[in-house]
């Protein structure tokens, strides 16, 4: 499924496609006859700058092993930072080269990167791209509105009707209709670090236009846990960097970006409560040990978000949480979880990964909230259930990978929640998805050597943001390579 945003151009070559009617290119490179498609999307703009995301798709029949995308930028455009690729620029000529973990693009697969740039001129789109020197010709006109591109109708695989056991009638608490607010253009003092943000954390609400973390604040480096905690609790916006192992319970206040490097690890747990506008990137959290089911259940989540909004969790590795790996509750909202890994490496009794909403009886705090996007995450092993288990919110789960064999279930839609489960890969797991008093629509998912329920009631919701979902068949390699702390 592809959704257009305010500016979208699709440049393609190789096999002719209905998308733009590109013509066959006879150009070849040293490794094989190469056929490609490049999607270039301007996802945000502000005075004097913009952000773009680029998807490189291999439309050929052989893998591309190592890639460089090149284009001529408009006069006055200067790339400032890039993620998931390294760049060089000479005049208007820009090139983006793969990093180690995304060098290979399987036939039919894709890789993506993004960048921010300054501009003293126009936001004109590049007229053409090359991949490894092969010209990707053809173009389409910019899309003038936010109308989604037409896609073929997906028909879910038929499943046997399942009649749940009779239960007492539950009357939900009446709530006002909630209309998503259009996302406003944000003009941070500095563009957010590694801003590849999409999903609910981009949506305006609760007094914020989007999620920028500590952008505009000072950049500091913590050399021990005391410094890390003092910076994280500060009332000032701040970008905080750390490396190595820190031990303890880290409490994070509003307007912070915390970025790890060189094997950064928090041994203990991280808590976000009554806060807003936070970005966590590129570090591991390993929960403290617990001795029994009851002891674990009474313990702490490795990462917990309570009564907080506009949070982006990106490229984290979260393991061995006592009660859970990562729970979201108590009216939290506008949250994106991307490119992260979840699992258990200890064989304890209580191995429940991601819970959204703590109780069916929490309508007074949770109705109309708990809206979360999960994309390009990997539940790699050890977890028994809750990947996620939801209540109340509108939960978008797309392009995630599930390989946690021996589990009870993966995704469960609970009381008053709506789950859109799209283009995920379930490999060797039990009960990919089920219902528990909720609503779930499943489209485009891959089920390989699975057993148990794949139940979908089919209405869910339409996300109020733009995104591009990769094919489920490409996820095993791309998500394993890209998810988690690096």
UniProtKB/TrEMBL annotation:
Keyword annotations of the record: Carbohydrate metabolism, Glycosidase, Hydrolase, Lyase, Polysaccharide degradation, Secreted, Signal
Gene3D superfamilies: 2.60.40.290, Single-stranded right-handed beta-helix, Pectin lyase-like (2.160.20.10)
SMART domains: Amb_all, CBD_II
Stretches assigned to the CBM2 domain: 29-139
InterPro entries: CBD2, CBM2/CBM3_carb-bd_dom_sf, CBM2_carb-bd_dom_sf, CBM2_CS, Pec_lyase, Pectin_lyas_fold, Pectin_lyase_fold/virulence, PEL
Region annotated Disordered, chain positions: 144-177
Coiled coil ranges: none
Domain of life: Bacteria
Endpoints of the signal sequence: 1-30
Similarity section: Belongs to the polysaccharide lyase 1 family.
Official protein name in the record: CBM2 domain-containing protein
Source organism: Herpetosiphon gulosus
